Amino acid sequence: MVVDYEDQDNMVRSNAMKFGVPALRFVSASRTLPGPEDAARLIKPIMDGLTRPLTDKEKEPGKYRPQNQRVIFEGTMDEAEAFFAQTQIVKHPLMNVPISLYTDGLPIVLPTEERVAKMLKGTSHKPDELMTFRADTRSGQKGDDVVFLPKLRTSTVERVAVNAVMAGCKPEHLPVVLAIAESGVGVGTTVFFSQWACVSGPIVKEIGMNTGVGMIGPGSPVNSAIGRTYQLMAINIGGAVPGINRMNSIGSPFNVAGVCFGENAEGLPAGWKGLNEEHGFKKTESVVLAGQATGGIYGAQFSPGGYRSLQRSGHGGMARRAGVKGTPGPHNWLEYLIPSLWAGREGGFIFIMVPEMAKHLYDLGFKTKDEVYKWLYEKSKVPLSEYRNRSWPDESSNGWLGIEGTSGKHWKELADDYMVPMMSSPSQNCIIVAGGQEEVSIQIGGGRYIPSPHELDRWGATAYSVDAWR
Amino acid sequence: MAEKYKFLSPLGIEDEVDTVPLAPRLTSLDGKTIHFSITGEPDLTIFLERQLKASYPQVNWTSKKSYTPTPVRLTEEERKTTDAVILAVSW
Lengths: 470, 91
Fold this sequence. Notes:
The structure holds two protein chains of two kinds. By secondary structure, chain A is of the alpha/beta class. Chain A is built from 18 helices and 16 strands. Chain A has helices at 9-18, 35-51, 56-59, 77-84, 113-119, 157-167, 174-181, 203-206, 221-236, 254-257, 275-278, 304-313, 317-322, 334-341, 355-364, 369-379, 384-387, 393-396, and strands spanning 2-5, 26-29, 62-64, 71-75, 87-90, 97-100, 194-200, 260-262, 287-293, 297-299, 349-353, 382-383, 419-420, 430-433, 441-445, 462-465. Chain A has a four-stranded mixed β-sheet with strand order 8-7-9-16. A four-stranded mixed β-sheet of chain A has the order 10-15-11-14. In chain A, a hairpin with a 6-residue loop joins β5 and β6. The radius of gyration of chain A is 24 Å and the shape is globular. Chain B is α/β, with parallel strands linked by helices. Chain B has a domain at 33-88. Chain B is 22% helix and 29% strand. Chain B contains two helices and five strands; from the N terminus they run βββαβαβ. Chain B has a three-stranded parallel β-sheet with strand order 4-3-5, covered by helices on one side. The longest helix of chain B has 14 residues, at 42-55. Chains A and B meet through β1, α1, α2, β3 and β4 of A and β1, β2, α1 and β5 of B.
């Protein structure tokens, strides 16, 4: 017997089928009743589920036969438009609303066999090649099949290309799309799960990605098409459907039309590595950092004018808070963010900042990104007495029964004044230089994952080679 | 007459799955071993465990606890001696 939440019944049914037990019995806990009252309510149906004789249907073995045909539709363009625009009604927990079967809700470029063949000219990989990992990752070893959640599916190169056609990509975009596909494009949990991708290396310029003003916003046919493919792959290859197995309660604006942008490598201060070099690749190699962030999106904590006043002359509120009134910069603007960064959520952040703001940190003495990451790590620490009063650590500490990472001791052995960092390693933080000239930074929660025995983060952004998919 | 085309599938590939019947239900609770696999939500599961044990003292209750959504697996030996499993809360 399984106890779920009633709005997640569809997800339980979907997973039960996938694991071969379609008749799995389950009952639903209440989201609102006090524990003792709900426990009393649940006991009878739970025990009934264990003892009530099986129905004939529950005794039947069977077979789940998914449709894996290569050609999904034959007909005219008009007929195909209607086919790909089909919807299904998701009654609950949606409110009887139509959800698109094959798209993100918007019209697509129809994936004719000819268009897909043209798209496949963007890679040397064979159309029928299964998507496998190009390197060891947390999700699998090099050569293992990439498994796409939530329906635990696999994919060929061709099926990725089909989604790229549908999203409006050009053949030269395909290696980036294939590298994003290598991430498995997971759609995550019930929380604020935001998918994003940032491309680093020569391919950024080769394909004309926007790395400047509004690079996360609309307008670029390259950024937008690749970002949209990320979403279409989650829907089509992964099989994610809101209310059935994609259960982000509110959703995320990042996932509406997809987010992909380029790193501004020329905006990096001297000595700061690009994302490619940070992840063990050469400057001449291209990578994509595929992010599956859970930790929210923050930004615009200060006015750009106030920022300029701080750095140019030591004037304004930021200077008063920093105690540097009247002293020209460079000043550490990250100090201004510290009180709010980990106010509600632990973990590393992706700090997207414009070149000028990166230069100020460099001029201040942070000669590498790693120095910034270490500074952030130290600044994030709070006494254990304070850390205990946070929400997520009840789960991440396994009910305070687990081991605290930095000390190697049981949580309950540590003194109240033991200083606990908000992330398992400095490298969970990640700086991306991009954007325009107006002094703005945004921070994407959920951090970054770099393979390490000490790395605990389940979702952080991970780098994949683009060149491996050329 | 409008030209006809073939349109390729954007969907991922799923393996066929052999579906199995549910395990036979318990005809009696006396002396049976029922495992309670606890996954988080302690404000409910603490009371659920307590009330299950109080209401069905004839059952040999076992439990394993995780505060995450991932259950602690039973060993092969434990599986052989367990008659039924309750998993709560799946989220």
